Amino acid sequence: MSLERVMPVGLDNTSDDPSGRQALIVNNNTYESITEKVCGVVEDPRIDKRWLAMFIVALGGLGMLFSLIVYLIATGVGVWGNNMPVAWGWPIVNFVFWVGIGHAGTLISAILFLLRQDWRTSINRFAEAMTIFAVVCAGTFPGIHVGRIWLAYWLFPIPNQMLMWPNFRSPLLWDVFAVSTYASVSTVFWYMGMIPDIATIRDRAKHPLRRLAYGVLALGWRQNARAWHRYEKAYGILAGLATPLVLSVHTIVSFDFAVSQLPGWHTTIFPPYFVAGAIFSGFAMVVTLAVPARAMYGMKDIITMRHLENMNKVILATGMMVGYAYAMEFFIAWYGGNRYEQFAFINRATGPYFWAYWIMVSCNVLSPQVFWFKKARTSIPIMMVVAILVNIGMWFERFVITVTSLSRDFMPSSWGYFKPTLVDIGMLVGSFGLFFTLFLLFLRFLPMIAMAEVKTVMNRPKQEESAERPEMAASLN
Amino acid sequence: MDSRITPSESDDPRWIAQLKDHDDNSEQELFAVVAEYETPDAVMAACEKVRDAGFRDWDAITPFPVHGIDEAMGTKQSILPWIVLGAGLTGATVGLTLQWWTNAVGYPFLISGKPMFSLPANIPVTFEVTVLFSAFTAFFAMLGLNLLPAFYHPLFRHPRMARYSSDRFAIVIEAKDKLFDREKVEALLKGSGSIANEVLFAPAKRAALPKVFHGIGIVATLATLIPLAFIAKARFTHSEKPRIHIIQDMDMQPKFKTQAPNALLAGLWGDQRASLLPVEGTIARGEYVADERLHYGQEDDGTFVTSFPVTVDEALINRGQERYGIYCSVCHGMSGDGNGTVNQRATALARFGGKGMAWAPPARLSDERILLQPVGELYNTVTNGKNNMKGYAAQIPVEDRWAIVAYVRALQKAATVPVDSLTDEQRAELQSN
To answer: What CATH number is associated with residue A230?
Structure first.
């Protein structure tokens, strides 16, 4: 620590100076002020009107999703626009979209941890929360897409009276294992990261009910160094496990497509292309969530402009990877010499879904290009617009892959045109309701910033500067 | 060493009063000496001193993991990574074995002629199960090694605990340490750069669980047994009732069923029948019966016809032989002896494995009972079936049914002819076969 010169702490920490390292937490914050800020959000007895308004809207969306799911189960999958040849339709588009969103959280919490990117500490907690809530949304769609939902347990290898077992050579079953492992490991990782911070809230809690609730959640964590030693070991191991896991999850999601024979799906570029796209869309979602959250809860000192700028750089880089993949798909279709493959791609760009294709290209490839300029990278309005465009573009990417390929397969006699129904649209909107309901509850009741981790990357206070011996009795009153 | 409460400069009387109140005035015992530090560097320097003094039952409290403190405290490397390695290897074995057993042994799954078990297709699930086992083990082993969850600890009653999980650092030396001596420990900590020293008390005896929790525990335990009891009852008793059919799938469809009244239709055409009656004076195609003796094998008065309503010639008998071979011989046998392949198989099953299986063998066509039946009755049996035999009206046209009856008569004649009535040539021919 002492070997590095830490730059003067100001509000603008976006400049780079090779002689030192920029502060990650600005505005003279101390350990205590970080605790006050983060716990203050959870401890505030008043209900923020803006939070309440958003929560009511989100709850409305959630209610709509649940009603539509009940309607779907009671009526049958005919309420969707899915029909031959497009049997996958919006539910699978939404599934891939949401599971992709989740990946940025694991990338931030695990991969950036292994790469010792200290700036991750300010954003990893709610990026991980975002991961879990996105995976909840993602898991809903294939669950209700199976048709006879009451038989969805057939997906798992459970001994049954039919003496039958699932087919382990199907990518769809790999997907079941990948997504459920991902959901549970992410939850463990998130919860374990939160235990010390929940313990902090428990120790500060005045109301017995709060003390009980947070006390149970904190599992008796006492911040002792011998526990921290094992905790950090476990955290490192989990990061090491989550890194290949997150890459495997979207690889296996891409296998759902790539292992089939359909032109436009049957390509080896899918795994890396899907993973890059997942990180791309996930970072866009983190920015979409972080910008309003840091403004609403006064976290601008902790989630600084430097953090946002770093995320925008990741968006630019992964956006370029995705653009490269789009170009490479066309090149391989031509270079591979397969006429069906060539038709599939020309059809994507010029066929009946050309509008979806060009929305995808302009949102995902063109819009992030503004991030070459620092002014754009550090401008709140521009980054919000680009992040939302990327979210839209990445949804359309999954739509383009799923629907255009299915609607034009080998034989023109089986071609079709997919149209969503109102239920399709309602379920997509409703899934955002589910996501934001969970996310707003998280912001209100759990520590949104990893306090213990942020404190490790702050400048250490010097002993000489410390105050006089505090009045012990004062703390008893 | 006096470990009972003795007011001293660092023992705040109000705090102890609070503790005694809280613990129903139970005796308080010294638990530990706690020293507070302001910076991570200060607590690390102090840790080195405590480590060098040789204490064992002590710990540092830091609101975040302080890097370098493990060396300062002399903490040994945790065995956690080895536990996780073991779990990972277990996960890989379980994942691979699960797939091999379920898809290649327990329920062999043949898909497109691919091998029953091939590693590449089984790597994704093996990997996921490995990660799943490792991650859960890392988490639970971390908790276990830290002796968590522990919802009670004397430190939780420390009034400064909120600071130790926010911005202050502490060293706790517990009274149970062999080297513990209150004066010496306090002196050591005072000289270690601490900004405050305190003693921490805990009740000498752990308070007993309130009685109401015993009651709740007993009731909850009994309640969990209720579903198990129902399962056990279902497992060991027999029931004649059909299983509860929670999900109706497509059993309950809003459709018109034959022979069932439907109130909707009454409004539509004044009749609740789903299938309309034919218009008066009309006959549907294929339902015209020109010759009732031919069609039903019965006279007007309902008795069975005794003579064939069709011309019996060699062509008819040959046709009958062919049809008999197709439809009848599987049960009745090629010679009409009632021992076709179905009978052989069913008899074998009934003999060797058929628990509760009853098999009524097919009739021997040369039985006297059948020999005496008029041709109309044979025809009726072919048409409508008898006992276990189903009717063949839907499969065999009228003329072919008569052809079969003619062939059955031929079989009966062949089976009942006395050996003496055969000529020598005929006997020789039969024996040569």
So the answer is: 1.20.1630.10
